[in-house]
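Q: How do we represent a protein-ligand complex in a form that can be generated token by token?
A: Start from the inputs.
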Amino acid sequence: MSWFRSHTARANDILTYNDRGTYSVPTHGLYPVQFNWDSCFAALGYRHRNPERALSEIILLLSAQWSDGMVPHIVFRGDYDGYFPGPDVWSTGQKIPTSGITQPPVAASVLWRLWDDSAKVDRARMRQAAKRLERWHRWFANSRQDDQGAIFIVHPWESGRDNLTDWDVGMNRVQPDTGLGEYIRRDLEHVNAVQRPTKEEYDRYLTIVHHGRKIGWDQKEMGRSSPFRMVCAGMTAILLAAERDLLLIMSELEMPTANTKRRISRLEDGWRSLWNPKVKSYVNRDLETSWTSNAVTASAFLGAYAGMTDNLGSMMDHFDRISGKVRFMLPSFDPDCEGFDPERYWRGPVWFIINNMVGKGFEKIGESSRAARIKIDTAKLAESSGFYEYFNPITGRGLGGKSFTWTASVYLDWAGRN
Ligand code: DGY
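Then emit the structure tokens for the protein with (2R)-2,3-dihydroxypropanoic acid bound:
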């Protein structure tokens, strides 16, 4: 790929490079399979050059939906040999091999973008997608919602923010399975170990997978008995936004919306339940104990994206405090809290997808200068460091996988546009 091509052309080259014909991989080597939210963000990039391709990326993902309604976090298509843990480890018994957990449900929000600005997408296919999304969202209400209406996760990978410092509390409770044996981490063949989760974390990730296998991947049971169960602000806000966007799609298609409206109201309660008056922020918490985080993660700023504007003043104070600490917004973890690490995966680095959602939310509520700060920082990172998976918020160094699909997509769809 020539360095002299424009940033937009290079971002488009990356989408083409990671395109497997009917779906996209997040990046070569490190993630050679279809990932749930990666595919949805790929669709955001595709929508400018080929809205039909964008729609089919999402429809193909949804075709791997389980009979209980869950849309899995990984669909093992193509040559998945280079990825660990593969389908034999998950052992979910699905016709299309998949993992046994889900991921942040951004599909409905991306779908609404496709509808909203082109309206050229086929109504029958849109209806097909909307029905599956409704079942997936209902699945969250049945298998992953706590008694206050917030969404919890049964594996750190479900949050998409695999090794977020907050998850240490739940992870420390997971007793690594003594029968794990030796395993080879394929991720370390591609990325420096200091930028990835540790061996101790992987032992625990796999232990939770073993638990899922033992209970035959019964998802309601997983919600009750997983050795890791933590309430996640990111999942709650993202699902709330997705439900609102699904409501818009279903209204356009004249589909019944009463259940969706009920779920929205429950999720609004859930989001409010995450408010921590001590730190004046929305935070993650443990489901097993009374532990509540004191850290402001990037997801705390997703309220506006989810249509929730309570406590805006306090959240903007946090935004300004954090923006004084880093050159590039938004660090995934609070730089003033213990456990912040600017280079290790979700313990500090900047991620374009979170920036995109937070930035869009701020734009929607008229927080223009803070939205501009996020957008400009995002564009600068891609233009000066390249289309990496994530970035050091202090130095701007690109980290993790290279030529990354969602980084390119967010650039094409938002950060690189005036
Ligand atoms: C990985 O393999 O690191 C993925 O993020 C798991 O979801």
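Residues 123 and 136 are 20 Å apart (CA to CA). The longest strand covers residues 34-35.
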